[in-house]
Amino acid sequence: MSGRRIVALLLCLVSLAALAAVAWWNPLAALFATCAALVAAGLTRLLASNKTAQQPTAAATVPESLNKNDAVSPSALLDATMNSMREGVLIVDSEMRVISSNSAARNIFAGVEGKLEERRLTELTRNPAIHDVFRAALEEGERAEVKVEMRRGDRRIFDLGVAPLRFAGAGRARGAIGVFFDITQLERLERVRQEFLSNVSHELRTPLTAIIAFVETLEDGAMEDAEHNRRFLNVIRKNAERMHNLIDDILELSSIEAGIVTVEPRAVRLASVIEDITTALASRAAERRVTLHNEIENGAQVYADARRLEQMLTNLLDNAIKFNREGGRVTIRHEANAGSDRISITDTGDGISPEHIERIFERFYRIDRARSREMGGTGLGLAIVKHLARAHDGEATVQSTPGEGSTFIIELPKADGRSEGGCL
Ligand code: ADP
Fold first, then answer.
1. What integer pLDDT is reported at residue 305 of this predicted model?
2. Is the pLDDT of residue 316 over 90?
3. Which residues line ligand 1 (CB under 6 A)?
């Protein structure tokens, strides 16, 4: 076996081990390992096409440990490795013509008919960033990375790393290898995180600004103004309470999302939970002249964590009162189906139009921000309800007719067929 082939094979084996160890966990390390694997693959392929090179024999090219049971050729091994990778891999020659690709790359360029091999990069994509980075690797012989966005139906974002392929002794790159990491999900999470931070800052700043302004007014002399100072103090207290509620809700939501909050479902008498909540909310309902109709049968039972169920239903009933019309009505019903229990809360408020329906359970999503704030809302209540329902393996949904009202539904699975207790 030639020295070059031995080097290629060694590279290939080291790369396979590195790939297996890191590919799932560390994208940067995976990039390194992938590049190494593909350099080896490229070398093997190009060496194989070299007419002067010796033909490989299975015994000479595959270590014992790998071919003890099955005779696997190195190229089959590399093909299997390449095709099992989540990252798309594209190798081009010095003319920017594809000489090798894996199945993930074929998926990325699925719009291209037939095989990718033999096609020019320009036939695969018109994205200038992709061309530039491959060209840089070929012409300048340097590794380069770029973030690229591709649209094929849905929008996908990739970190593309390209490295030149050189042969020993040869100065110029004979080809280049590009590895496409799909970072769409990471980007989405990052966006959600940033949105969350900016929402939290915004939500906290508003009451804080009001508090500072009213404290300054008091300091500037309003303290002696017996007619107004109580009202100012009242505003300060309200805004401080709002911040307090907001922080409570944020902490609650993050504990649920982090899996710290546990649900321990048991058989719960629904009527008594509803009675407790309606008693607690009675004065709030009376203020808005909203009547509460509890249609839950006395013996109705659901399978839930009683405290968490109360929390979900309190949020929904509170909203049904808040967003109802003066003199409106709220009806609470229960329906036992074959595999689940449905608890519904119907109000006679303004309803929710379709464009809001699909976003209504998102954190901080509010139809009328000012109205929600005025009513002491944090914009996190429905997100908490959704998370808690899902923690029960259930779901929270809404149906609404604008102008007539809304029905929020919590669907909980029955005890049969699910494990006792549960962790969020
Ligand atoms: P908050 O009530 O604190 O504003 P929620 O997460 O509980 O936050 O609700 C989010 C938004 O959904 C509310 O601001 C309101 O715009 C809308 N909403 C919730 N419940 C109802 C309802 N029963 N009728 C109409 N709109 C509602």
1. 95
2. yes
3. 315, 319-320, 323, 347, 349, 352, 360, 365-368, 372, 377-383, 406
Give the separation between CA 81 and CA 15, rounded to whole angstroms: 10
> pTM score, two decimals?
0.65
Which whole number is the average pLDDT over 305-321?
96
Which residue from 199, 248, 360 has its CB within 8 A of the most atoms of ligand 1, so it is best to mutate? 360
Phi, psi angle pair for 372, to nearest 5°: -60, -45
Report pLDDT for 360: 94
3 state DSSP class of 293: strand
Q: Kindly list the distances between the CA atom of residue 65 and the CA atoms of 72, 95, 250, 306, in Å, as whole numbers in the listed order.
A: 11, 39, 54, 57
**Neighbour-count burial for 381-419, b at 16+ CB within 10 Å, e otherwise:** bbbbbbbbbebbbbebbbebeeeebbbbbbbbbbeeeee
Reported as a pLDDT band with limits 50, 70 and 90, residue 70 is low
Q: All domains of the chain, ordered by start, with CATH?
A: 3-182 (3.30.450.20), 189-260 (1.10.287.130), 262-424 (3.30.565.10)
Pocket test for ligand 1, best of 292, 344, 357, 366 (most atoms within 8 A of CB): 366
Q: What is the DSSP letter of 120?
A: B
User: What single string gives the DSSP state of each residue in 125-158?
Assistant: ---HHHHHHHHHHHHH---EEEEEEEEESEEEEE
For 211, other C-beta atoms within 10 Å of its C-beta total 18
| Nearest alpha carbon, ligand 1 atom 20 | 319
pLDDT tens digits, one per residue of 374-403: 787 889 999 999 999 999 999 999 999 999
Q: Are 342 and 305 in contact (CB under 8 A)?
A: no
pLDDT for position 220: 87
Q: Counting beta carbons within 10 angstroms of the beta carbon of residue 343, is it exposed (0 to 12), middle (13 to 18) or buried (19 or more)?
A: buried
pLDDT in tens, 222-281: 888 877 888 899 999 999 999 999 999 999 998 888 888 889 999 999 999 999 999 999
- Cα 379 to ligand 1 centre (Å): 7
Per-residue pLDDT, 226: 79
